Amino acid sequence: MDLLLVSDVDATGDGPRLARELGVEVSSRGVDAVLERPDVGIVFDATSAGAHGRHTGRLRAAGKVAIDLTPGATGPPVVPLVNLEERVGEDDLNLITCPAQVAVPIVHAITRLGPAHYAEVVSTFASSSVGPATRAHIDEFTSVTARGLETPGGARHGKSIVILSPAEPPVAMRCVIHVVPEGEAEPSAVDGAVHAAVAGMQRLVPGYQLRSEPVHEEKDTPWGRRRTVTVSLDVVGRGDGLGRCGNLDVAAVAARVVGDAVAQRVMRAPQVTA
Amino acid sequence: MPVVVTDSSLRDGSHALHHHMTVEMVRQVAKALDEAGVPVIEVGHGDGLDGSSIQTGPSSVPEMDLISEASRVCTRARLAVMVLPGIGTRPHIGEAAARGARILRVAVLCTEVDLAGQYLEQARELGLEAVGFMMLTHIREPAFLAEQARWLEAHGADSVYLADSAGAMLPDDVRARVAAVKDAVGIGVGFHAHNNFGSAIGNCLAALEAGADRLDGSLRGLGAGAGNAATELIALVLERLGINPGLDLFRLMDAAEFVMAPFMPFQPIPDRESITLGHAGIYSTFLLHAKHAAERHGLDPRDIVIELGRRQALVGQEDWAHDIAAELAKARAAHDGGDR
Asked: Which of these, A108, A252, A268, B223, could form a disulfide with B227 (CB 3.0-4.6 Å)?
């Protein structure tokens, strides 16, 4: 992939400024500028849930693959370690949300061992790391995260709790994941699967780490007193422009991995000339 | 304008009951409040719509059943529900409205009011009265809160509340904040007290003096932490000030004594833990978690609470209590080991 264009509706912000410094072309005409460029094949849409809904049809008609970083969820949900291969042919890939990118690999690792009634993720972010587009669409952000725990996470029912912390200095991202398995989940098998998922994520996002060993205990759940698995994760950002709270690192890395996969597929495909 | 009293026994009280509210309790309490002339009754999980979770505790009865029951027994009172952006979502609000909710209280940390936008808009679409409910208002200065209140007003709030969620304020703190907000907006201004310093009623008085025209209470103060301002005492205060908006004092006292008290597992009071919670400025919902974590590790819960305050635990980070307990226990074991 080559970065050809950064298009915003306001080209005076930090993002466009950084792009200019890196010698990348910048536009202030939003999606229109993207649609005018036949050489652009992959579009990373980091606008807002509402705006992405307006962009999808136009991008598809122009033959561009959209990688959606908003909780607009117009396309299928994609989590690189879980279902990228089966979704890479689609033209509108939804990266769900950052808490989903953090939690789904863990939930999926557990539900592969046996079905689960429920998965819940409680994610805490630094207030300063959550921009106005997410804030204006907190409803989609919350519900799309919960749906991600179901598909592709594999839980029958998902729930998401999102907490913004104004604490200073900014907190690192924190995710607590509770899973209620339907059967008797073998703790050692669950721990092995969780560690494998964490190792996989760490290769992509070095700041992704288990806070402690998974906890297996009986808890009050919506299905009564049941055995639960609780996994606590910290995601620390590299601090290279995206801050110390790791949510943006996770989103950016997921986007890059999906973009690379799409690009490889496009390059492998037979060239069609009109 | 008469003071509007909202009773949140059946919402904030959910925390103290560890979310084991029953339909029978809602029936009896809502009916008694309605008969006593309380104009607004809030019902639901302590964390608002869809608040039932493993993290803070699942409801033992579906919240919509509770809302329907309250709606069925109320003849005059209007029902309120709370939504915390990041927890409840729009379908739950739609369902609550269909079940009879007439007021939506959108509860946001006072530093994050712009999360309320979508829900204030939905309230308008559904014809619900919209309350912008700012939590943990002790963590910011009056001028900052005034600015946030203006944002809420501009985005459709019919009234704005200041909640002393951690019970961390004394009357002067409340007076300054309410006065600044009252100056800044043209809509109603409310105050929601917690009693961690034993000053819930005094704080309500300060809020009234500073121009508040809405107060929250709960019967016998049933609520998180040291509880709320007792609704029966708020009624008494309004009566003494000559501004009782029509609350029946004796009926409210009877409701507290004979209807609510039998449902209460304990009487919330400013005990050593909740005084410490207020002092550390920590949200009252951390109390039961700090106590459990302390029991499990043989610690003093106050040490956990003070550490939570130091780490600026705000809302929804109840699991930190367990992490901190484990760390403190480990540190203590290392220290004891070192002594030997």
From this structure: B223
